[in-house]
Amino acid sequence: MKDRPHFDPAHWPLAIASRSAVDETHLVMGDGVSLHRICLRGVPVGDPLAALIPCDALLDARLEALAGLERWLRGARRGAQLFGPTAYQARRLHLLLAILDLRRGRDVTSHMVAQRLVYPRLSIGQGASWKSSPERRRTQRLIHEAEALAAGGYRALLAGGAGRQKQRCDSAAPPRSRFRATTPHRALPRLFGSRRWKEHPMTAAHPPRYLRTPDAARRVGLSPRTLEKHRCYGTGPAYRKLGGRVVYAIDELDAWVELGRRSSTSDPGVGTVHPARRGLA
Asked: Rounded distance, CA 248 to CA 237, Å?
């Protein structure tokens, strides 16, 4: 095949799958790295092949795919796969596709999605406890990502760059050679780990009710290590776990400071401290 001026489909490797119609033949062939999907339309035997490529927003990806097919048929060294998801990305894509399949049925709630797919081994609450739980918020985000992926976001996965390009899901938008617009709900950036968050305008008016260990330690004037000792010894303020993380309520921190403060033994004028020792609960 290397010495032939053109490639005869009769000498191509055996296709993984094929389907013939009246005037065209569809082939799926694999080179061990990626799959090549080809549609042959009225190809005379012995004539060179011509590629028909739409000049749309996926032009760059189509040209790269055509170049990879040409290298493979010529016997040259195969190139890298256009989109090779990592193990984490593959699991997440499978989860999003499973969510789409499940929601094709009627009356499928977010609680059912969480129970069957997102948290199959976790006993999640119901009613008010479910509505205020972090599991419900994460499930809703996954549902939004899956819907955005099905609405057109999947095209960004085909555009190369491991899916990190962004695309507008609106079909009426003018095509571009590279996707720069965002999809609804910022699904694709979250899909591949980008953490670009914008502060909500109401954040300043409504301060957080809970603090994690480092922020809580600064509020009570202790080091995070000392506050962690208090938690382990049972001498610290009340805490709870939200989403698997230890958090402290601000009002309970302030109440603990008022009730449990003791003068420092080394320098009473510096401030107040809480000795983190066993048996002082």
From this structure: 8
User: pLDDT tens digits, residue range 102-146?
Assistant: 988 778 899 999 999 999 888 888 888 888 889 999 999 999 999
Nearest of 204, 215, 206 to residue 248 by alpha carbon: 215
Q: Where are the beta strands (DSSP E) in the chain?
A: 17-20, 24-30, 35-41, 210-212, 240-242, 245-249, 262-263, 272-273
Q: What is the DSSP letter of 240?
A: E
User: Mind listing the domains of the chain with CATH numbers?
Assistant: 9-74 (no CATH), 87-191 (no CATH), 210-273 (1.10.1660)
CA distance 197 to 193: 12
Question: What pLDDT does residue 260 have?
Answer: 63
Joined tokens for residue 232: 């382990």
Residue 165 has pLDDT above 50, yes or no: no
CA distances from 195 to 116, 188, 189, 217 (A): 27, 11, 7, 25
pTM over 0.70, yes/no: no
pLDDT at 180 over 50: no
Across 128-271, where does the E strand assignment appear? 210-212, 240-242, 245-249, 262-263
